[in-house]
């Protein structure tokens, strides 16, 4: 029976932390895909009032935190509490509401306020632009080198098969800057500045994107840095600083959750050749190997938009994220049966793993050692 090497072995990083990648037969891969399809269809058939109540409840809480935060800016001694409340509001809006609604997870409700074609989030990145680069490009070509531009966001070296250049010596600095200004990094992502520098993309190709980005940037800047600060009168500077601080907290949180779900040790990447004529089963297989989870409690999962279950999100991106914790149990059991490692760990573990990778890949990857001819002859004789 023929086996297919769907995920290539790493060139020089064969270690215990790498995923245990079995060479599934085409038959096994088809069965694996069928099991995942069955889970998806079962959950879709079960969607109902509990899901609607959940997302509307989160929206209500998010709005309450925003109102409380903005109201407390009128009382300077409460500034830290105002920033905390507004930060929670922005995190909930971007992670559990915006991201998931724009994935179409609640389109079945028929509610215009929760419709992926209408909703736009509290972020400088235009929703329509993000849906193309994220929902289509990233989720279709997950971890395919040369296709998935989320591998390093065009700024970082996050895989050994990305050719090293002295520029990458600044990997840790670029990561810190991207974390600090994450919403801006996401907004600039589609401009493909790195390809313009290489000469493989022309500035003229970005004209349509420029208009959308600038419109959204103006709207966000006007809201957070002029209108709301002005409404607090003499407390304008404090409100301005508070809004900036809340945006920073949201940026740092989103960056860490997303990077820990995509780049810790053990996450696999693929070549375009390996994914030619890809079956449904292999697509599921690639999503699973190219993602990682973060363990935690219910509040943690809610604040992460349930993207702490990045594996389940990549397997079922259009299923309401509140379902991911229950699906994780079933997905993990299936992985055990097929001998596939289910990559999960505490935030501290995944975060340390990502940080270590960022630093390690800032330097050239050592070439694998090859045995000397004499050694090969001795080994053959033995």
Summarize the structure.
The chain has helices spanning 26-46, 49-72, 79-102, 127-140, 171-180, 182-188, 193-198, 207-231, 236-262, 280-289, 298-303, 310-315, 324-338, 347-360, 373-381, and strands at 293-294, 344-345. It has 382 residues and is mainly alpha-helical. A two-stranded parallel sheet has the order 1-2.
Task: Give a verbal description of the structure.
- 57% of the residues lie in helices and 1% in strands.
- It is mainly α and 382 residues long.
- The chain has 15 helices and 2 strands.
- The longest helix is centred in the middle third of the chain and has 27 residues, at 236-262.
- The chain has a two-stranded parallel sheet with strand order 1-2.
- It has a domain at 26-53 and 123-360.
Which features does this protein show?
382 residues, globular, 2 strands, 57% helix, mainly alpha, disordered N terminus
Radius of gyration, CA atoms, in whole angstroms: 23 Å
Class computed from helices, strands and strand pairing: mainly alpha
| Number of helical segments with 4 or more residues | 15
Look at the structure and give the mean pLDDT: 89
Question: What percentage of residues falls in helices of 4 or more residues?
Answer: 55-70%
Parts with pLDDT < 50 across at least 5 consecutive residues: 1-20, 376-382
> Could you give the distance between the termini?
30 Å
What is the 3D shape? globular
